[in-house]
């Protein structure tokens, strides 16, 4: 007897899936030179969407009970080609060989996008050798099937990805368990940290800068008896200090900063 899942899918599940897919889309767009603003992505319950027509499903991934179907119309590759290789009206049309190369690159970008989308939406699934182009079963589009549709739009064309309910039953990432009595001072105590000392600032105009010479005195905005600021690696002020010298080396004596 075949058992069908009954899952309405919460908004948090869809939001988490959309976040993973958007991160993938950022990386793919950067790798293939596609403007990110031209791409949009949306995740929805499969029964609230409209599927592609038969014959437009081009990828099928499966692993155990998890299954993913991805499809797109032929127009998507042409729209992607226009984004990747915008025509330059100042020159004559490209030679047929150049056009073929652009079309081939756009097709490869589509295939790479499909693989990346499947990996982001359902980590762990694999495409079988005889993946075929079978459409997802109709039961996935019935109410409360637990299936999800990811729609990725480039220009006016869309790539659709359907995930069955098993793809969303992945275990939550395990949290790193630290010993309760971890001595962070002992662990981090020998890590070097660079501190910077700010003596003050001064503002000069360009004409003054160009006339500076050896021996000129530059007056800063701080006073001799005023503590200087010691900052950490991130530039945040940690404490104040007084300048001094010891054994021929400039040193600072830590004091509480006046602003603290």
From TrEMBL:
Residues 191-252 form the Flagellar motor switch protein FliN-like C-terminal domain. Pfam families: FliMN_C. This is Flagellar motor switch protein FliN-like C-terminal domain-containing protein.
């Amino acid at each position: 007897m075949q058992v069908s899942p009954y899952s309405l899918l919460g908004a948090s599940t869809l939001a988490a899936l959309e976040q993973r897919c958007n991160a993938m889309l950022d990386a793919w767009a950067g790798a293939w030179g596609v403007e990110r603003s031209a791409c949009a992505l949306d995740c929805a319950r499969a029964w609230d969407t409209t599927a592609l027509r038969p014959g437009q499903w081009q990828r099928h991934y499966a692993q155990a009970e998890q299954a993913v179907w991805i499809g797109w119309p032929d127009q998507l590759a042409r729209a992607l080609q226009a984004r990747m290789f915008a025509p330059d009206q100042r020159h004559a049309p490209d030679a047929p060989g150049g056009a073929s190369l652009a079309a081939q690159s756009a097709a490869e970008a589509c295939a790479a996008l499909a693989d990346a989308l499947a990996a982001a939406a359902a980590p762990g699934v694999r495409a079988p050798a005889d993946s075929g182009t079978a459409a997802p079963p109709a039961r996935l589009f019935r109410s409360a099937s637990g299936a999800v549709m990811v729609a990725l739009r480039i220009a006016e064309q869309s790539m659709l990805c359907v995930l069955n309910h098993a793809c969303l039953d992945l275990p939550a990432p395990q949290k790193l368990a630290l010993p309760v009595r971890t001595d962070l001072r002992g662990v981090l105590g020998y890590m070097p940290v660079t501190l910077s000392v700010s003596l003050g600032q001064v503002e000069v105009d360009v004409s003054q800068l160009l006339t500076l010479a050896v021996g000129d005195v530059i007056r800063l905005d701080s006073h001799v008896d005023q503590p200087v600021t010691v900052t950490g690696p991130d530039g945040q002020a940690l404490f104040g200090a007084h300048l001094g010298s010891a054994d021929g080396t400039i040193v600072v004596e830590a004091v509480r900063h006046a602003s603290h």
